[in-house]
Amino acid sequence: MTDSSALDPEDRKIVTLARSVRARNGVPEGAAVRDETGRTYAAGTVALDSLKLSALQTAVAMAVASGATSLEAAAVVSESGTAAAADLAAVRDLGGPATPVLVAGPDGTLRATLTAG
Question: Per the CATH hierarchy, to which homologous superfamily does domain 4-115 belong?
Answer without folding.
Answer: Cytidine Deaminase, domain 2 (3.40.140.10)
